[in-house]
Automatic annotation (TrEMBL):
The lineage of its organism: Bacteria, Bacillati, Actinomycetota, Actinomycetes, Pseudonocardiales. One of its GO terms (molecular function) is peptidase activity. Keywords: Hydrolase, Protease. This is Serine protease PepD. Pfam families: Trypsin_2 (PF13365). Gene3D superfamilies: 2.40.10.120. One of its GO terms (biological process) is proteolysis. InterPro entries: Chloro_Bact_Ser_Proteases, Peptidase_S1_PA, Peptidase_S1C.
Length: 286
């Protein structure tokens, strides 16, 4: 969706491999592989195939960044998952998360304004050809248009048509996030709208590098929040929230030990663009 290593690491690239990573010599941490993909709409046949088939897929590599001081765990700030009322968190956040549909694909997004401004990943809208609809939590599906994009940060703002009174997401200060904090990911993996998964913040300031959209597009790198909350294709653009139901990140990439012949799936290593980064980009896109 790799242990935390201290010290500066050198940039390395590895070819796509199936199943596992091979550590090079001299011994350095292997570069993780990342998927940044939307998902096809899920069908009954796909569900059966997923139950009995292996998961493979092609991915690219990127090293860690130097961990920041914020990566250390503080027992006083970490929220114990067993004490969190996840039912209340889901009830609070679900109205602020949408499904983004295009052709036979799907992504996710978070509501920014009552009149339908929505934040998602650039790679979601780049795959759409400009033909988008948004499915709201109440079941309504409405047309949507692209307002602005920032490929360099993998973020985009779209606008749902003919809506009002929507519930905007509440922002959190991602700089206050600590390793071990309880989190919930919300989105539409494979079109399963309103899917929620929980976990913790696994690491901070994790450098993620993903391919650009299109053959000639440059790769995109950012410092991400790593989580073990299950994230799968279709979660792209959805919300990663804290125990208070506030946005700490935009789910954007996963690691998966897979080859180019199939779809990647969650192995508990997912990445989100921090909310402070996203909020700054949204301001410039407006």
């Amino acid at each position: 969706m790799m242990a935390v290593h201290r010290g500066v690491m050198t940039e390395q690239s590895f070819p796509a491999m199936s199943g596992s990573l091979v550590e090079p010599q001299p011994a350095v941490a292997p570069a993780p592989k990342f998927w940044r993909r939307t998902a096809p709409m899920l069908t009954a046949a796909a569900l059966v195939a997923g139950l009995f088939g292996g998961v493979t897929g092609a991915v690219i590599a990127s090293p860690d960044a130097t961990p920041s001081a914020a990566s250390s765990v503080s027992a006083q700030t970490v929220v114990n998952q067993s004490t969190v009322d996840w039912t209340s968190v889901a009830s609070k956040v679900l109205p602020s998360v949408v499904q983004v549909n295009f052709a036979n694909g799907v992504g996710s997004g978070v509501i920014l304004s009552q009149d339908g401004q929505i934040l998602t990943n650039n790679h979601v809208v780049a795959s759409s050809g400009g033909q988008l609809t948004v499915k709201l939590n109440d079941g309504r599906e409405v047309p949507a248009t692209v307002v602005s994009t920032d490929p360099s940060s993998d973020l985009a703002v779209i606008k749902a048509s003919g809506v009002s009174g929507l519930t905007p997401i509440k922002w959190a200060d991602s700089d206050s996030v600590k390793v071990g904090d309880a989190v919930m990911a919300i989105g539409s993996p494979s079109g399963l709208q309103g899917t929620v998964t929980t976990g913790i913040v696994s690491a901070l300031d994790r450098k993620v590098t993903v391919p650009g959209e299109g053959r000639r597009a440059s790769s995109v790198s950012y410092q991400a929040i790593q989580t073990d909350a299950s994230i799968n294709p279709g979660n792209s653009g959805g919300a990663l929230v804290n125990a208070a139901g506030e946005l700490i990140g935009i789910n954007s990439a996963i690691y998966s030990p897979a080859s180019s012949s199939g779809e990647a799936g969650s192995v508990g290593i997912g990445f989100a663009i921090p909310s402070n980064t996203a909020k700054q980009i949204v301001g410039s896109l407006g």
